[in-house]
Amino acid sequence: MNRLNKIKKLLEKNYNFKGNYYKYFPKTKQELKQLIDELFSKYGSNIDLNNIDVSNIDDFSNIFYNNSYFSGDVSLWDVSNGVYFNFMFSYCYKFNSDLSNWDVSNGENFSEMFLHCELFNGDLSKWYVSNGKYFSRMFFEYKSFNGDLSKWDVSKGKHFNYMFYDCKKFNSDLSNWDVSEGVLFSGMFARCIKFNSDLSQWDVSEGERFDSMFLYCKSFNADLSNWNVENAVNWKKFAKNSLLEKFPERIPAKFRDDYL
To answer: What is the four-CA torsion angle of 105, 191, 117, 169, rounded to 10 degrees?
Structure first.
């Protein structure tokens, strides 16, 4: 091959920001899902998928859903156009790729994204989720999760129900979270036995569902007496079997009769 052809070949190549060669260019979610299934079938579930250009994809929901053996690498994916991330890694029991540099700033739906991801221990502290509306069950039964989410902007969030359910190690500082648009808080911290962040300043005035919010929170005893819960319609088992039961004066007055 002469020098001119070599240069031409080099110019024809497509690289991502780390210099890795892009080999595949799916344009739709369906094409991406089909491609991943084919690669899994050919190379196995422990595969580097960073040679896929996903920059045109806006819907990543269910892409790896129930791939229980998936342990591949997607750390360099450009997901900046992604809007839907719901169920993306649900039931990926062995998944533990580094997602710390993902740009999810356009994401709106993060529901069930890491549901039952038992090994995942990625740093999500720098994720910019300011467009996120739906966080339901995002870390559901992710028992080892204790990531720092203190700087997350969830100000557009509406659904937080069961977000951290059974996250037994979780104790991040969420005191500065703006949840003023939140409607659903059911089971948000249920069974988070180590969680004890100060949520006294949370604005939950739009909240309707608070049932089981702190169920079995054995360490939680923050003063929530000033919460505005006028719009609440369900608060059954709000603090059942939690440390907060021993301090009924710290429970919102509307919910307090159940603990006196």
So the answer is: 80
Closest to 91 in 3D by CA, of 62, 115, 120, 73: 115
Structure-block tokens of residue 26: 């799916």
Average pLDDT, rounded, for the chain:
92
One-letter amino acid of 144: S
pLDDT in tens, 176-210: 999 999 999 999 999 999 999 999 999 999 999 99
d(CA 127, CA 64): 20
Burial label for 25, CB within 10 Å (0-12, 13-18, 19+), is: middle
Residue 84's DSSP bridge partners are 59, 109
Residue reference for tokens 């991943």? 36
DSSP state of 256: H
Q: Is the pTM of this model over 0.85?
A: yes
- Measure Cα distances from 13 to 8, 247, 251, 259 in Å: 9, 65, 61, 66
In eight-state DSSP terms, residue 22 is P
CB count within 10 Å of CB 175 equals 13
Angstrom distance (rounded) from CA 211 to CA 110: 21
In angstroms and rounded to an integer, the radius of gyration of the C-alpha atoms of the chain is 21
